[in-house]
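Narrative summary of target 7.
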Amino acid sequence: MPREITAFSNPLIKRVRNLRDKKHRREEGLFLAEGLRILTEAREAGRLPQYLFFAADMAGHALVKALVTATEAAGGEAIETNADILSKLSGKDNPGAVVGVYPEFAVQLEALDRSSAAIWLVAERLRDPGNLGTILRTADAVGAGGLILVDECVDPFSVEAVRASMGALFTVPVVRASWAEFRDWLREGPGQLVGLSLDTKSDYRAARYAAPTFLLTGNEAQGMPDYMAAECDLLVKIPMLGKADSLNAAVATAVMAYEVLNQSR
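Modeled conformation, tokenized:
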């Protein structure tokens, strides 16, 4: 049976609100997700929150009821509250109907089965949570095996990244590794490393991709370092016919991923 919390001074509200800060997320091993669609995607992927906050006026909604039932059955706690509390937790003036608190789930490189998918996405020093979320959505859309974040990337469990992923964080394995760790793991088995670069004449549509293909996207501002480019089996570029010299990192990744998907078909 859900309990009710409507006081801003409640210790749990303060604790959950602090999860918007990276330091507290790491200390607690927990993160926030918000919105009925995202939490429903998580439930369907088998991920249920430790705490589920929902608006009292949405208690009768079928999807909210399903989330409450599943959360409590899994040992989590469902908490009825109001829009002001949800706004405080999510940091949005117009919060969604639900906010969930989830345990972080770490995936190790060694746990990945590279033969399980023809496409894998790799991002190096990605800084923007919106880009990370969009790349996760692309990974889900093309059936990629996972997203490997190389070196110091934005936190995939930040509120902004989770929001931008629209639920894909719960459906796409995310691994964090150093470049050396990723490179050594990759070379232990089959896998073509394809880098997106401006310093090549190879058109991405003319290249031929071999499964499993690992698409490497560099940092938004600087691109990938020369030593990483030198490790790639293939460097390709997307032609730019206007005045812009490059696409947004997430957009370029999506264009490339669909070309690899088309060839794999």
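The mean pLDDT is 93.
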